[in-house]
Amino acid sequence: MDFGIWFLIGAALVFFMNAGFAMVESGFTRAKNAANIIMKNLIDFSLGTLAFVLLGFSIMCAEDYLFGVIGVPNLGIFTDFANFDYSGFVFNLVFCATAATIVAGAMAERTKFSAYCIYSVVISAVIFPVQAGWVWNESGWLAQMGYIDFAGSSAIHMVGGISAFVGAVMLGPRLGKYTIDKKTGKKKSRAIPGHSLTLGALGCFILWFGWYGFNGAAAENLSQLGSIFLTTTLAPAAAAVATMTYTWAKNGKPDVSMTLNGALAGLVAITAGCSSVDALGALIIGAVAGVLVAAAVEFIDIKLHVDDPVGAVAVHGVNGVWGTLAIGLFAKPISVGEDIISEAAGLFYGGGLGLLGVQSLGTAAIAAWTVVTISVTFFVIKKAHGLRASMEDEILGLDSTEHGLASSYADFLPAVNTDLQILGEGAKEKAPSIPVAPEAAIPVTDVSTGTKLTKVTIVTKQNRFDALKAAFDQIGITGITVTNVLGYGVQRGTQMYRGVPLESQLLPKIQVDIVICKIPVDVLVETVKKVLYTGNIGDGKIFIYDVENVIKVRTGAEGPDAL
Fold this sequence. Notes:
Blueprint: H1 3-27, H2 34-61, E1 65-66, E2 70-71, H3 76-79, H4 86-106, H5 113-136, H6 141-145, H7 153-171, E3 178-180, E4 187-189, H8 197-216, H9 222-251, H10 256-271, H11 279-303, H12 312-330, E5 334-336, E6 339-342, H13 354-384, H14 391-396, H15 398-403, H16 415-423, H17 425-430, H18 438-441, E7 453-460, H19 465-475, E8 481-487, E9 496-497, E10 500-501, E11 507-516, H20 521-532, E12 541-547
Antiparallel strand pairs: 1-2, 3-4, 5-6, 7-11, 7-12, 8-11, 9-10
Helix pairs in contact: 1-2, 1-4, 1-8, 2-4, 2-5, 4-5, 4-7, 5-13, 7-12, 7-13, 8-9, 8-10, 9-10, 9-11, 10-11, 10-12, 11-12, 12-13, 19-20
């Protein structure tokens, strides 16, 4: 197998992960900010590419590496293109872009787009390349000590997660995210659900797919590549099951969005040791990650009151640390014939505390570098430019105020507005323009028979409509009006979102309106009750009104004749 080709295919898979991040982040946030999220994921890669080519790559990968800490900047890509390491540049670039895009999720829905552009450049040009050189440049001081982070649990994900946490703290929560509990006087979290779990799930699967390139691209032989694919499959699977079980046991229902986060947490955790652990180690690392992410999301939100809409800090920060330290426990020497997969040995495989100590030191050093540099970056941006969008912008949505879009979902705007914009002046030319008095167009005569008219309104669950319609046909109902509505009753909903109860949750219902004159009201009511009754909360309600008159517009008929 030509591993030079696979190296570039792996880099392409990592690039495709940008689509996954865009889907997860937009799906877990509100629709009014979807375009802003998409734009950020596009631009942080684009700006990051320019920053990395001008400065970041040479700082990280230069052969002239000072004191094991930083490379000497050069413009070899421009001055000696024929001898430039094209593959190495592209490979490291796509990883660099991943670190920058992680931050977008935690700071979503309230960050100025211009401020995002600035700190994305700083992360790609300086913050990521410096510490990544420590880990992956052969002259880097951590690499010299034997520090292991095969694909970036610490160098990429922990850096992104810590940056996200610092940014979310300095930015503050979204409007209305935290309120004061009137009973206890303490601050409490309010759930703000994302607008599309479907997009979130699509993003999760895209990321999982791309992760085979993320972890496997640097494999040196086929046996190692197969082993990496295996551990990269087992860990997220174990993590997803662990998160599902944890949320099911804690909240009474398996949490969908949290389980998606669980799978990603397992991927993050196995990234550092994907080539250093066996199947058992991968399963344990993944299972722990699945519990960690759920507990961390709730702790960060409910206890620390740091608003992270997508769980980026828990997924990438917390599990980036766990995955890196786990190598010191579960690393196992593995070889297949002449192919060496792993030479390191962790605590549980006779390696003692040495490797765990190195992993701990490296993790602490990278974390300290990230905290200091990203804090300075955000502080300067906040003072000199402004970090947070205005209250008005946040309420209206960043799609509208930052990008001039009424909605990211144009087809869901009111149809009348869309039609008028599309038809324009042509509609006026085709439409009849002869004025006609209503009395001439619709002769109105009093043909009422004096029969009583009654309107019956039924509000119930959507899944009961077919049975209700069939019953109406049997008793002779000839016309109904059906509307999809949202609302709540005394119970105000009982749903949980990411460990936080949803307050006054609007539940989907249908409203059926019927006007009758010949069919007795009590017959209709009894029919509806028989169809809808289960004895459970949410069976529905029936409202009965007197109707003074009904007028049929086309013919002018009134009363029963209009029906």
